[in-house]
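Table S2 (continued). Query chain:
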Amino acid sequence: MEKAQLVFIPLPVMGHIVSAVEVAKLLLTRDHRLSITVLILNLSFVNSNQVHNYIESFEASSSTISNRLQFIVLPEEETELFNFTSSIEIQKPHVKEAMLKITQSKLIADSPAPRLAGFVIDMFCTTMIDVANDFGVPSYIFFTSGAAVLVPSLVNPFPAKAMPSSLLSRQWLPVLLDNARRFGEARGIIVNTFVELESYAVESLKMSIYPVGPILNVGLDGRNTHQEIMQWLDDQPPSSVVFLCFGSQGSFGEDQVKEIAYALERSRYRFLWSLRRPSPPRLLQSPSDYEDPQEVLPEGFLNRMTGIGKVIGWAPQVTILAPPAVGGFVSHCGWNSVLESIWFGVPIATWPMYAEQQFNAFEMVTELELAVEIKMDYRNDSGVIVNCNEIERGIRSLMEHDSKKMKKVKEMSENSRRALMDSGSSYCF
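Corresponding output:
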């Protein structure tokens, strides 16, 4: 029985690496002849602490597939100025060297070397197709956003205000174009979506596309590390709590924080708010937790909200969305967060910030009618302050639980789970 090996090269940020590893785990579960090596690009402009902690946690687990999934952290190359494309490009020799060591070490050990079957490359790392070509194996792109971002397939007119931030950026547009030009060289594109959610996009794509989602780390259990939060949620009535969380890179300045606080206080809904301190002005650095959030909240806010809501730092989003008490999710609309909300049947109020999140918000609110809007065209670098009236209106619309919208959310939740079952649309890719 011939054994085979795949090489995964994700972008080393949490939103990309977690879903890439989940795809790897899925493949390993399906085929016991397969092993996978995940190469971690060591980029100087990325805060790698979260990624390294995630890897350590995975390797410490008792997973039955952990012996067939290995991580290799590549050496760091210092660059004087930030240039995303060149930073990925100069990692090529390290990728090639790592692959040579893997194949040579297996030969030295006098054990049959698994056949190198191909590379699975992040949507932003397509220059690594060259390395796959050097080894004479096919490449597959792992696309961490939705399929509709790949191809114009919307039924409703698309407003310019929902254009992805990156397409309007002189810094990021060349990066996207450089990567997108090479998509056609890949054997196929693996997309974290499912047919029932984005049928128009999946059917419109002429190239080989494999919708494998929703790919989520739903096995993550943060109850033990966040017992107080989870106990509080367990004590709340069903669908009574609005959860506010803006992703691993999401944060606001003090003026915006105060507007959110005023809106929550006036709405009187129970809430759980993941409040983060903005990161230093360096790209891809993660926000941090406040030692004392009272420094940015309105005076006396926490005292007045005792028993009604909780302000917390980082929290495991999947763990918090699962309890029945959570009835709404104010989200930045990162694609992973969108899929998590659908999986648990929790409707979203959209507040996009960067990347393709404005597009995701439009798709969820207008195209799929699975969400309500707070500010669909918000961009975190615009300097705009969303006032408390807009926020309160969005929260009330979210938590009033329109029966038609809730029915659609629940139906899509059921579809997302069926897609991964035996003979489901994503299972059969």
